[in-house]
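Table S7 (text form). Paired inputs.
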Amino acid sequence: MPDQHTDEQTHPHHPRPRALRLGVAGPVGTGKSSILATLCRELAGELAMAVVTNDIYTDEDARFLRSAGVLPTERIRAVETGACPHTAIRDDVSANLDAVEDLEEEFGPLDLVLVESGGDNLTATFSPALADAQLFCIDVAGGGDVARKGGPGITGADLLIINKTDLAPHVEVDVAAMVADASAARDGLPVLALSKHDAASVAGLADWVRSVLARHRDGTLVPTDPGPMAPHSHGGDHDHPHPHSHS
């Protein structure tokens, strides 16, 4: 079997890059696992895929995806970080890199590996050493002002998803205004209003992933770093930041 721990996988007649590594981050409860399941349902018929999930002490997200039947169960791996979720996606990514490379070695060549962060706050971002591109997820149930709060995930991720738009009437959120606020905060970077029940928005998400994969394959995708961890707190309290930062 060829060595798939290098950036190039040997393929008969057609060298191809290693799998695109797409990071998915966002606060607890915003629907990250649901987004992964949606992407697997949309793309697994055309792409060879695998998933790595991150939880602090459990494999809850991995078990959710396995039970959803969106991929063969052996292609879904769990990393138990044992610490703040951002630690394993930014500070020390070795456990996640090992999981990704093990999947590529066992099931490669793969086209796409999704890496889901454990639920953190608005500051969580992936190291470019782990993710080639990253999307950040917020949701309407968190409040219409969330996008205006900023943070590296909101302002700098390759794609910002405003999730669960079908709930907007029930939580009195104006989705169009929330998208406008997000777009202003992101200086032209894309924003997607998403509901898993809305076929057009799901298709838009799948098309965005296809476009990133195409850039990865032709060598024009350059991983960017949305920025270092900002001062932050845990438990959803963003108004009283933790006294130190993580970089």
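Next pair, protein 2 of 2.
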Amino acid sequence: MSEPCEVMFKLVRCRSSVPRARAVLRAKLGEWRAGHMVAESGELVLSELVTNALRVQVPGDRMVGVRIESREREGLLRLEVSDAGEGRPVVRQPGELDTAGRGLLLVQALAHRWGVDERQAGIGKTVWADLLAPGAAPVLEEADVAAVTLRPGQSVRVWGAWRTVRSVRSERYASGGLFVIVCLDEGPALRLQAGEGVTVRTGGASAAGTPRTPAGQARPLSGPVSSS
């Protein structure tokens, strides 16, 4: 299972939202170790897409949605900007004296491909652009956490391989102690003491709020249990 490589956020309809979008993109591309050219082109494209979305007439106080995704297998950086306005953006051919209307020309020049989709949920549209970004991917780190803090979707090291946690439930011993049953995407479930340390893989973020314990990799205490 691949690690999540995306970030989504919303922007209010004001001029300061453009530099804010660029700052978020710059931070994520730094985490993903994207090259300088990718970062520079990505900021220009995202700035144009957000600027265009802010100019669209929309009902009420509708916000602008932004989604940034690294598609490592395809070697692409996907930028999406959604607004609640009608119509579709059109590439213009401004004259030499025109001071505006060149935004989509820039997007067209820098992007590998771009397009417009209707929003599946809600009104309006999503304008997207794919940029070539080979090697851009999250930096994976490992952290030791207590078994009781495991959550579905995390990657945990078990028997020398990475497995995805499907479900976690806790039970108590007759003596009052707590243990957890961890069901995985492959292999038998694990029966672990609540405080036992397991190694999880993160997308570059620390396991905030989880106690660190001196542990290696997850292992069953009393043998595997049924995951039915």
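The chain has three helices and eleven strands.
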